[in-house]
Amino acid sequence: MTIAARDFMQHVDDFFNYRKTIYEISSQTIKSNRVDLSLFQNFVWKKNVKTIDGPSVMGFQYYLKQERINCGASINRKIFTLRSYANFLKLKNIPSAENLPFYDVLKIRQGYRQRPHALVPEKIKILFESIDTWTVLGIRDYAVYALMYQTGLRVGEVHTLNLNSLDFKNHKISVIGKGNKPRTLHINEELEEILTQYLAVRPKFYGSWKNDALFISKKGNRLAIRTMEDNLKKIVRYAPLNVQFNVTCHTLRHSFASHLNDNDVDILVIQSLLGHSSPRSTETYIHPSMDKIRESIEKLPSVLYVKELIRTGVLNLNFQQPYKPKRE
Quick check: 172 pLDDT over 50? Predict the structure, then answer.
C-alpha cells in the first residue's frame, strides 16, 4: 500500500518545525528543503500523480534531468530531502510511510558539474582594487568581501555577524556556521584595519544605532544575503578580471581555501577554518594553482632522472631548427 499524493505533503510544516527545533537546522537549509519539497509537489500536480510510488519517483528524476537540466548533485539533494521527509513520516507513524520508495533510489555518481572555481591572487587584487572605497557603501562592501576572502566565511555567516562577534583585543571573530555550529577565527592586522575603517563610517548608515548587526544596509536593516551577492555581481561586471567563469561570494571562499593549500597549510587546518565536518567536504574547495601543479611534477622521480641525464650529457636532446626557405 502506498501514500496518496494528496496526503503526502500534509505534514511539511511539522517536518520543518521538528528539524529546526530539535536539530537546529539553519534557515538557509530550511529554505532549500522547502524549495525541494515544493518542486516535488508541483511535479505531482503537473503530472497528475495519484500515489507516491517507485514510478512516480523515477518520473521525478527524469523530470529534473531532462526538463530542468539538473546535474547529479542537484538531483541527489532533492531526493535526500524527500528521504528525510519520508523518515519523519515514519517516525510519526503515518500509514504506509515505510513503503515510500525514496530509500531505494541510488545516488547519482555521474553528471556533476565542474568543481567551483577559484581566483588566483592576482585576480583577487584586481577585484578589490575595483571597489570604490571613496563612498560609505564602498567601504562597507570592501569590508564584507575582505572578510569572506581572508577568513573563508560563507555569505550566510557574514549575514548573521553582530557587532559583538568581533574581538579586536584578542584578534578573533566568532562565527555561527551551518547547523548552528560555532567557531572562532583569527583576524590579522590588515583585516582588523579594514573592519575598523568600516566601523568608523557605520554610524552614517540610517538607524545604525538601533541594529546590532555588523553589516547593515543603507536603510538600516541587517545586510541581506541577496544584497551582498548582487553588489559583488556589479563589482565583477566592471572589474577587468577576464575569467571564464561566474565569480560569486562563494568564489571568495574557494579562493581562500585554495590559496591556503598552495601555501602548504594542512587540510585539517583548512577544514577547521571552513567549518566542515569532514575533510571530504574540504577537498572540493581546494584548487591547486598551475604553479603548484608544475612544481609537483618537477619533483617526480622520472622527471628528476631525465634532468640528471641531460645535465651529465648522457641524454643529448637536439631540437629541430625552425624552417627557413632558401633564398634564390
Answer: yes
Count of domains for the chain: 2
HSE-CB at 175 with a 13 A cutoff on CA atoms is 24
Residue 317 falls within a domain, yes or no?
Answer: no
Dig out the grid coordinates for 175 from the structure.
562565527
> How far is residue 111's CA from residue 71's CA, in Å, rounded to a whole number?
6
pLDDT (mean) for 216-226: 93
Tell the burial category of 154 from Cβ atoms under 10 Å away from its Cβ (0-12, 13-18, 19+): buried
pLDDT band at residue 112, thresholds of 50, 70 and 90? very low
Own/partner contacts of 83-87, CB < 8 Å, gap of 24 or more, are 84/19, 84/33, 85/12, 85/15, 85/37
CB 235 within 8 A of CB 131: yes
- Conformational region of residue 214, where left means phi above 0, alpha means psi within -120 to 50, and beta covers everything else: alpha
Distances (CA, A) of 266 to 90, 187, 250, 262: 42, 19, 21, 10
How many of the other CB atoms lie within 10 Å of CB of 187?
Answer: 19
Distance CA 113, CA 111 (A): 6
Task: Tell me which range, 22-26, 107-111, 162-166, is most confidently predicted by mean pLDDT.
Answer: 162-166
Within this chain, do residues 127 and 99 fall inside the same structural domain, yes or no? no
Which cell goes with 17? Answer: 518545525
Q: Grid coordinates in use for 32?
A: 532549500
Domain extent for 160: 121-283
If you average pLDDT over residues 168-187, what whole number do you get?
89
Please report the beta strands in the chain, taking only residues with DSSP state E, as ranges in sequence order: 3-4, 51-52, 166-167, 172-176, 182-186
- What are the distances in angstroms from CA 18 to CA 15, 30, 80, 278? 5, 11, 17, 25
Looking at residue 318, its pLDDT comes to 63
With cut-offs at 50, 70 and 90, classify the pLDDT of residue 278: confident
CATH number of 192's domain: 1.10.443.10
